[in-house]
Every structure is written in C-alpha cells, then in structure tokens.
Design goal:
Number of strands: 4
Radius of gyration: 16 Å
Order of helices and strands: EHHEEHEH
Structural class: alpha+beta
Number of helices: 4
Helix content: 25-40%
Strand content: 15-25%
Largest sheet: 4 strands, antiparallel
Distance between the termini: 31 Å
Strand order of the largest sheet: 2-3-1-4
C-alpha cells in the first residue's frame, strides 16, 4: 500500500491557527493525534504520513473544510541499492 504525505497549510493569523486546531479536535480526526505541526516555528502547516489505497482515500482523512488546501504526495523510501541503480541508469 502506498504511503502519502498530507500537508495542510493555514493562515499565520493566530485566531485562524487556533480555529484550525479546534476543527481537528472537534472532528476527532485521526490526523489530530498523528500530525506534526510547524506553528511554533512560524510555519503554519500540519503534516501527516500514512498508508492509503489512493490519494483520494488519503484526502478523506482531512477535515472537509480543509480539503481544498491540502496537498497529498505519494512518498517512497529508497534503499542505497535503489539509488545506486537509479544513478547507473542515467549513464
């Protein structure tokens, strides 16, 4: 099953930031307990990684009001051997 990174940006406005966090709390979203937040460092985004069947399934975990701004990216971990093979294919 593919792994996806979900990125959810929000405004630097303190009130909106608090509203987004409140939305996560009220939605009971699985993201709430597993998301990483950049707000304390001035990067107003939340990130979450998880295994889903598709990008569409990954998007369903995002609270509905935030889906329009979410970015979903399939991510892959490569082994050293994978990287060596890829480098050699370019020659």
């Amino acid at each position: 099953m593919p792994t996806y990174l979900i990125e959810i940006p929000h405004s630097v406005n303190t009130a909106e930031c608090k509203q987004i966090i409140k939305l996560f709390v009220e939605s009971g979203s699985h993201l709430l307990s597993n998301a990483d937040w950049g707000c304390k460092d001035g990067v107003h985004k939340a990130w979450f990684t998880g295994d889903f069947d598709s990008k569409e399934n990954a998007l369903q975990i995002v609270p509905p009001l935030l889906r329009h701004s979410a970015t979903i990216v399939e991510i892959t971990k490569f082994t050293k051997a994978d990287m060596i093979d890829a480098a050699e294919q370019n020659h």
